[in-house]
Write a structure and sequence with these properties.
mainly beta; 4-stranded antiparallel beta sheet; single chain; 30 strands
Length: about 425
């Protein structure tokens, strides 16, 4: 009996030892934090007397340029007044321009794209609360260009009166910038040579949502894609009005009900007057959400080396490939347990690096091996970090920009894993 008790105690002690040796590692794996030693961070703001103050450092975009710098843009949060352009090499952050001082009334650079030959193009906007204020005096979001060598900005003008600019894309061959306004959801083109602009109308009826006292308009496209022929693509939802049977109509009630279809990809070919449905529908997780009417859209996109586009979805965090020539969707699966693959970039190792996570929650770093077709979840950065954009620096490190009031650039060096 005593021998049996000693044997049971020995097993118990062995279990405790195994837990102490491996349990903490398993727990860390469950928490999912990126390995210590492979991650560092750089502060963007410069204190109360610096050019970028607290409340003005939330990062909206990161762009890798040939001069071995990564250029970034910011927005004002929690009462901040200014938005900025900066650059980083992964070791330091340099302030470039207070954009609000050049374009008064603009508190956010919502998008920033490379124009080639040392030029950046951007689009500005302002607080959602201003859009929700009746008779507000916001004039509208500006398109602008920025020369990174001379550090000079050029105002290209307001695109839609009283509306911000949500996303942009450049047709380099024809010198045309396309953009979608916010919250109106109109698709515009702007010709760089002539300054002429054209409104293609509302591409998605915005959904006004009030959550915890904060108003926003969901459904406005977050990203535009463009192929070599100059055709622009975006995701939207469609609405059909279905008649209600006569015997089901109540006195004074509706005679139709609305049927929504989310995640539809539309295109506007060069020279066309109106966007058309491609027939492609992005991946959607059925069951939890039958077919989300606005959240099911494209959150991020990047050109694939072998043609088409890699895209991440908003609602479920699916990674998929879109082939414009055939309107084909190839679903690569759900990379992690949350949703919103909000930014993509290529690493020096040829892998596709992805930033995922809800806007108000932890950010997750993931990678996809395009040759093997395997997805790896590398973990989350910290329990307070909320990053929105990702890029690679000249040393091959992955940079991630926070969208908080007091923001950092997180630097991930996978060679230190």
């Amino acid at each position: 009996m005593r021998k049996k008790m000693i044997k049971m105690q020995s097993k118990f002690i062995l279990i405790i030892i195994l837990f102490l040796l491996y349990g903490s590692g398993s727990f860390a794996q469950r928490l999912g934090k990126v390995e210590t030693g492979s991650i560092s961070k750089i502060l963007i703001s410069n204190g109360p007397k610096g050019p970028i103050q607290g409340g003005e450092s939330a990062v909206t975009k990161l762009i890798s340029m040939p001069d071995e710098w990564v250029y970034g843009s910011t927005k004002a949060t929690w009462g901040g007044s200014n938005c900025h352009l900066f650059r980083t090499n992964g070791d330091v952050v340099e302030h470039l321009l207070n954009v609000t001082s050049e374009l008064p009334g603009q508190t956010s650079i919502d998008d920033l794209i490379s124009g080639g030959e040392g030029i950046l193009f951007g689009g500005t906007s302002t607080y959602d609360e201003i859009f929700d204020t009746e008779n507000n005096n916001y004039q509208g979001g500006h398109l602008f260009s920025f020369n990174i060598r001379g550090k000079k900005i050029k105002d290209l003008g307001i695109i839609q009166e009283g509306q911000g600019i949500r996303c942009t894309v450049l047709d380099k061959e024809r010198g045309i910038i396309y953009c979608v306004t916010y919250p109106a959801g109109h698709l515009f083109s702007y010709h760089l040579n002539t300054g002429l602009k054209k409104d293609y109308g509302e591409v998605m009826k915005p959904m006004r949502v009030k959550d915890m006292g904060r108003v926003s308009w969901r459904g406005v496209p977050k990203v535009l894609l463009i192929d070599d022929s100059g055709t622009v693509y975006y995701s939207t939802y469609i609405t059909d009005e279905i008649p209600i049977l006569p015997q089901e109509i109540m006195a004074g009630g509706r005679t139709t009900y609305s049927l929504y279809g989310g995640g539809r990809i539309f295109r506007l070919a060069y020279g066309d007057e109106k966007p058309v449905f491609t027939g492609a529908v992005i991946p959607t997780q059925k069951g939890m959400d039958t077919d989300p009417l606005y959240e099911n859209g494209i959150a991020s996109a990047i050109r694939a080396y072998d043609g088409g586009f890699w895209c991440g979805t908003i609602n479920d965090g699916f990674l998929f490939k879109f082939h414009p020539s055939t309107s084909t969707i190839i679903n690569k699966g759900k990379a992690f347990q949350y949703w919103n693959l909000k930014s993509l970039c290529y690493g020096r190792d040829g892998k596709l690096y992805m930033l995922g996570g809800r806007d108000e929650d932890n950010s997750w770093l993931l990678s996809y091996d395009t040759m093997k077709g395997s997805i790896e979840c590398l973990g989350w950065l910290d329990n307070t970090s909320q990053c929105s954009v990702i890029a690679v620096d000249s040393k091959g490190r992955i940079l991630m920009g926070e969208n908080l009031r007091h923001s950092f650039i997180w630097v991930y060096d996978f060679s230190q894993r």
